[in-house]
Amino acid sequence: MNDASTGGPDLNRRGFVKAGSVAAFFAAMGGVPLTAQEAEKAAAAQAAAEGKVLPPPKADPGYKEKPPGPPVKCAVIGLGSQGRDILATLAKLPNAPVVAMCDHYKQAFRRAAEAAPQAKQVQDYREVLAHADVQAVIIATPTHQHREIALAAMQAGKHVYLEAPLAHTVEDAKAIAAAAKALPAKQVFQAGLQWRENPQHHHVLKFIRTGATGRLATSRGQSNRKQSWRRSSPNGDREKALNWRLYRQTSPGLAGEVGIHSLDLARWYHDKLPVAVHGLGGVMQWGDDRDVADTITVVAEFPGGYRHTFSATLANSFEGEHDVFAGSDAAVLIRDNKAWMFKETDAPLLGWEVYARKDDFLNDSGIALVANATKILAQGKKPAEAASQTEAPLQYALGRFVENINDGTRPVADWRAGLESTVLALRANEAVIQGGRIAIDPADFTV
By the 8 A CB rule, do 74 and 98 touch? Predict the structure, then answer.
């Protein structure tokens, strides 16, 4: 997701959590927690039921708390809403000083400088790339501008964090992925698929992969936010540039700008590439000159008949954003950094349920999960305080970017993940425009 200023609340997945009443509602439905420790117990119980002996569990690389590495000097290119969020997030990291910021619109520096007052202000990205002090660049420009800047940054030898989707066309996405694939081993390219770098989603993945939900039957995601996506400016040319999301020539639509995260999660958890995507949509609320739908439904079709549905609207905010994975034994619901499992009455007892941490929310007893819950509880904090202690997904993603640079390790959200989910999101957008089904050529996923 890129420059998210829309004239209303920013359309991003980080500001959604409503801890109290939402937690009480899911607890009342019988939700149980999904923590890393319980994931291991679930795997062990499942294996025991099948007469198997599991090897010692492997730690998720890079997800254990460790001292920060050496400083990595960063530059941010694109200073819209998302760019400013990135600057504010980098300021929270102990080893990611921002030495340069870039935007072709001079007035953008006025607000951006609050988060990085010492950073050099540059209007031409090529000057940033020529800056010897810049080791890593974070690209948060409009999606249709990604290709030129990303290719130049990699060619200049910089580490690159590129917001998702990689590009607004499959051709451009493949060009970026091909360049990233050819990089030297220690030059990092990371796609902005924030869930893949978030420990919480790795915890939930263990439950899916160990069969705690039974056989996955279906999944769905949604993003409901009432906002126009339109921004105003007294300058006509500037206003047109600001509203690139509203026009098909430059925008990947709701499927690309928002849906990519839910579609990526489904593709990652299901561990298969989709074969087709269906789409429907239209302008249901905002009667202006836009030709990008403000309300959509897409269905990604995977081998074996499994389907993931994603819906989004800019007309209504009811139920906000979440993802659900439903299997024969249980369903898992994910909202930002929290997740709950809802078991079927006929589901087998896995053995880990007795270890589930139960908390009181309002007048109900239930379970809430936050990232790093074990660490938070060990610090003596109450579950009600946990929501305020969780790191935003962007902070996890950028923190991992810096760690990967220092460690010479490969991101989970690498060029391949970026390409595959970008292709799915872009084909979904095409299906919405056509109002039908599009088969996905397997060659689209390769470079």
Answer: yes
380 exposed, middle or buried (CB, 10 Å; 0-12, 13-18, 19+)?
Answer: exposed
Which residue did the predictor score with more confidence, 426 or 381?
A: 426
pLDDT over 80 at 264, yes or no:
yes
pTM: 0.84
Residue 165 preceded by cis peptide, ω within 30: yes
Does residue 10 sit within a domain? no
Percent of the chain topping pLDDT 90? 65
**Residue 56 is which amino acid?**
P
**Same domain for 119 and 238?**
no
Task: Report helix, strand or coil for 435.
Answer: coil
- Percentage of the residues of the chain whose pLDDT score is greater than 70: 76
Looking at 178, 195, 212, the residue that finishes a domain is 195
Which CATH number goes with the domain that contains 165? 3.40.50.720
Give the C-alpha distances (Å, rounded to integers) separating 130 from 95, 96, 241.
22, 19, 26
Residue 411 placed within a domain? no
Residues near 316 by beta carbon (within 8 Å), at least 6 away in sequence = 224, 226
pLDDT of residue 384: 39
Examine the pLDDT at 349 and tell me if it is beyond 60. yes
| H or E element at residue 359 | strand 359-361
* Domain interval for residue 99: 74-195
Same domain as 421, residue 291: yes
Residue 69 lies in a domain: no
